[in-house]
Design goal:
Two copies of one chain form a homodimer.
Chain A lengths: L1 H4 L7 H22 L2 H8 L3 H8 L2 H9 L5 H9 L6 H14 L3 H13 L1 H22 L7 H21 L3 H4 L3 H17 L4
Helix pairs in contact in A: 2-3, 2-5, 2-9, 3-4, 5-9, 6-7, 6-9, 7-12, 8-9, 8-10, 9-10, 10-12
Chain lengths: 198, 198
């Protein structure tokens, strides 16, 4: 048991923190797809089973490591259910619901950190691409060659909304009813996902 | 001469710095419109004529105080000349030209600072609203009641582009040809300026 070899007790807060630190490094350096639970466990000096025990799967570990306050796996079904042409509006609506809720403060902290810290920026990028954009683009069966650009464009609109509503606090955007922003930015996101962008 | 009273020599770097410090405070606290050269001069302990001598008008003082690397007064004519339906594309094109140029690094520094510092955020907001968005919305004769929201929406798309291309560096957005982003985001900006957003 490698956990014993390094002297870490499986149940201690130290062990949990060591796993999270190793996970942050692995996800930032190798990206979500290439990072493995096994390698993270080795780096943390624990057994992979312990990582699963604490965090479940790789998605959950990623979310814990990046301190992401929202769970796309729980939120995305509401975005993807329903007509294909409404995904953009539903994505903006759910996005605003999360950021307008109490967890939004954690989102602002994360965005601030990502802007000043290259490492957090990489984690945020990985999170957006693999946990949010990829499932949406998959669901819509978007041409794989176009996915990076289309996903990136969606990210520009969502990140810009977050910046103006919650960070820089442009009055008209910060004070707008969610429905107003959904009506304005929903079609933009929809066009970036499935419309003509050339 | 109040410059003499405070012991500051008109030609010294101290004087220039004192004016810029007073200007930053005035613009952040009162906003661009309410801040006056006279009040800034008083706060800096110099004669208003000296402020004009160093910096010219209020726009130039604002740009120097906020260290904005680009001059919208010089750039906007190229955006506004031409057909009304092309303003969105031309605004995105000029925006990317500025950020892709060597001065873009200063833009990134400014965005980083604005995200972590409320004071810089206010200055950036004032700059965007009064120096970029207002002239564009004026030129297009947009319904005054709709200007704050329309301007704010344009800001979400431009800020999001800057975030993804230059700060968080999403590959597909960071590596895209400017023309690709103009074709994708230009119509978005145009719709926010003059199209149906309800």
């Amino acid at each position: 048991m490698s956990a014993r070899r390094t002297g870490r007790r499986p149940g201690s807060p130290d062990t949990r923190e060591a796993i999270l630190a190793a996970a942050r490094e692995a996800f930032a350096e190798r990206g979500f797809d290439a990072a493995s639970i096994r390698a993270i466990a080795t780096a943390a000096g624990v057994d992979p089973a312990l990582v699963h025990h604490y965090f479940g799967g790789k998605e959950e570990l990623f979310r814990a490591a990046t301190a992401f306050p929202a769970d796309p796996g729980r939120l995305l079904p509401a975005v993807l259910a329903g007509d294909r042409d409404g995904v953009g509006e539903r994505l903006v609506r759910v996005f605003l619901e999360v950021w307008d809720s109490p967890v939004g403060a954690a989102g602002v902290a994360l965005l601030r950190s990502a802007v000043s810290n290259d490492w957090t920026a990489r984690l945020l990028r990985e999170f957006l691409v693999t946990q949010v954009l990829r499932p949406v683009l998959d669901h819509l069966a978007v041409d794989p060659a176009q996915r990076p650009l289309r996903g990136g464009l969606v990210a520009t609109q969502l990140a810009g909304l977050a910046m103006m509503r919650y960070v820089l606090r442009f009055d008209a955007v910060a004070d707008a009813e969610p429905a107003t922003l959904v009506a304005a930015a929903g079609p933009t996101v929809q066009r970036y996902l499935t419309g003509d962008i050339t």
